[in-house]
Automatic annotation (TrEMBL):
Domain Fe2OG dioxygenase: 107-210
Designated name of the protein: 2OG-Fe(II) oxygenase
Source species: Saccharospirillum mangrovi
UniProt keyword Oxidoreductase, yes or no: yes
Residues forming coiled coils: none
Length: 224
């Protein structure tokens, strides 16, 4: 009888560990079917409810705090920040918390909290080439985008176009915003853009941040 010790066994395919490995290797990771169709449906329901409420979705802007401004030439989408008050978004945030723990354990990233918003790009919506964080200017370290669009077709446009970190003119990949797909990338290294979408495009964009507390300002984490 063959004796299989605990240590001989392959570890199960932990999706968070796979994502962390890919980020360590190449700075980004793509995971199809990260969420089940069921979970995506639940999140879409939340988003559709928000759409029916006046003012729940706001035109997205660029810049933070006093530097915030909307600019339709840069991005054309509407957003709503997740607050985790309904089960669907709680579940999603719990998964992001697991991802945060895995990243910190395996890559020592020191990720401290996570902020995320629903985004709705109307037909014709886009987001021009940008970095989510400029080195040294922000505490955003890792970007995530989860897509919520069933049956996305090539002619629907709306791909996430990501550029090579060592040559921001060179396209690294185009990713279709297919329901359940999660992409994760280092915020300071990857220029990216959203190509014009031909039909409404739904997603949750989020950022893990490191603690930027100073003696004068304590940055509270979203989860405690
Ligand atoms: O939705 C996407 O594919 C990317 C969105 C994005 O780049 C952002 O919100 O910063
Ligand atoms: Fe971005």
């Amino acid at each position: 009888m063959a004796l299989v010790s605990f240590f001989d066994r392959q570890p199960p395919d932990d999706p968070f560990a796979l994502l962390a490995d890919a980020v360590e290797r190449q700075g980004y990771a793509i995971q199809e079917n990260f969420l089940s169709a069921h979970q995506v449906h639940d999140l879409l329901q939340v988003l559709h409810r928000l759409r029916s409420e006046e003012d729940a979705l706001q035109p997205a802007g660029v810049g933070r705090g006093e530097a915030f401004q909307t600019n339709e030439f840069v991005r054309k989408d509407a957003i709503h920040w997740l607050d985790g008050t309904v089960p669907a978004t709680q579940d999603f945030l719990a998964q992001m918390r697991l991802l945060q723990q895995t990243m910190n354990r395996r890559l020592f990233m020191g990720l401290f909290d996570y902020e995320a918003h629903f985004a709705l790009y109307p037909p014709g919506g886009f987001y021009k080439k940008h970095l989510d964080a400029f080195q040294g200017q922000t505490n955003r370290r890792l970007s995530t985008v989860l897509y919520l669009n069933f049956d996305w077709q090539p002619q629907d446009g709306g791909a996430l176009r990501c550029y090579a970190p060592d040559d921001p003119q060179q396209i690294l990949f185009d990713l279709a915003p297919q329901a359940g797909t999660l992409v994760v990338f280092e915020s300071e290294r990857f220029w990216h853009e959203v190509l014009p979408a031909q039909r409404p495009r739904f997603s949750i964009a989020g950022w893990f941040r490191i603690n930027s507390s100073t003696r004068h300002r304590v940055d509270p984490p979203l989860w405690q």
